[in-house]
Structures are given as structure tokens and as C-alpha cells.
Design a protein that fits this description.
By secondary structure, the chain is mostly helical. It is built from 8 helices and 3 strands; from the N terminus they run H-H-E-E-H-H-H-E-H-H-H. Strand 1 and strand 2 form a beta hairpin.
Length: about 140
Amino acid sequence: MTKKSTPTPYDLFKNNENLETGQGVTLQYPGFSITIHRAGGSNKKFAMILSAKLKPFRHQLDRGLLDDEISKRILHESYAEGVVIGWKDVKDANGKNMPFTKENVVKLFNDLPDLFQDVKEQAENVSLFREEAEKVDEKN
């Protein structure tokens, strides 16, 4: 019987930069998939995009006065530019293929806020971007 080694903090908490900013993680939904980078961690592109889009509204944001619609638009655009890196078999409400473009990502998120919420939650789920998670996926 082989003795299982005790995991180190590096085993448990080391993030995989390739998943965060390279190949990404693919979220599988029935009939389609969306590939994302992490919203945070080593994804500096997303942080820079979000910061730049919020800059003109910093005064309002700091005082809790930023309009919800503006906030939603900025978040959708930031995810479209800095988090979502591709998709497969995404169709519009009429069943036509939607090419992967920034504008189509924003449209999809505007039309389907629950889908955006799920993508956002997954992009913020640090465990999806851990070294250990990739090893488990490789075994499956």
C-alpha cells in the first residue's frame, strides 16, 4: 500500500496561469459551450479593461450613485472583452448561429441575465483555475 502524501499549500492553492489567461476553461451547457478566462488572478487584461471603463464614473461609483444600467453595461462589456474568449454552438432566439464577437457576447448577456450571472460566478470561482482542478479533468 502506498502512502498518500499530505498536500502542501502549493498543491491546494496554486493557480494555473494557462487556465486563467491562456487556453481558459470551457463551461459546458446543454447544446453549447462558452470558454472563459478568470475574472481576477493573473488576468490583468480584465482588470485593466474594467478599470478603464469605470474611470469616467469613479466619482459616482465612490458615492454609490452609479446607475444600475451603466454598471450592467460596463460589466457586460468588460466580460466580453476580458473574460469570454470563445464559444461553440451558441444560437440566437431564432435558432440561428451567433458568431463569436464582442457585440454578440454583450447581446447574449443583456438578453439572458441569468446566463451572465452563471458565467460571472464561474469566472470568479478560483477553484476552476487551480492546478489540481486541471489534473482532475485530465484523469476524467
